[in-house]
Request: fold
Amino acid sequence: MTFATLCSAVHAQLGSRHRYTHVVSVARLADRLAAHHGEDASKARLAGMLHDLARLYPAQRLLDECERREMPIDAFERAHPIVLHARLGAEIARERFGIDDEAVLSPIRKHTTAAARMSRLDELVYLADGLEPGRNFPERAALERLAFEDVAAAMLGTLRASIAFLESRGAAVAPQTLAALAVYEAAGAGRRLSEQRSTVCPT
Ligand SMILES: [Fe+2]
Ligand SMILES: [Fe+2]
Reply:
């Protein structure tokens, strides 16, 4: 499948111009981050294009399609089926787009909640999804710049922004997200993030 064919198939699968614009933007940022950090830019771009294939499925369809594939569903996922679009999306990438490269499938699975253990490509696609220019929150641009300098500090900042957003809406935070937060906090990324903030915002 050529990249142009893949793009039109993704557009058809998503069924939304807005969502397609988002995935193209994620793919572009993931590509740039991967090239900068010495990772495989074509895999990052592919994961970016395919990461939200099931994003617009209603909750019941997410549950039904996961059950039909006999995928395990944990208590958080059953209570908040939206997070299943990540793991189901990876299965759709495999089935409809012929992707069998775990380096591409893994970032798709982890892009929503993050996880305690993430590959560098997992991290870069997570960052691209959270920080692409179409996102609109105050720290976005500074965190995007930080993602090119210090991946762990950018992960911590993006996880904190995501958790703050969920909490502001009274939404629950997935256990995998809290586990990821603990890992990056323990790794000392918080100190570097504070240093970055003092550089960006001298006041
Ligand atoms: Fe998503
Ligand atoms: Fe996304």
User: Anything to note?
Assistant: The mean pLDDT is 94. The domain at 3-200 is CATH 1.10.3210.10 (Hypothetical protein af1432).
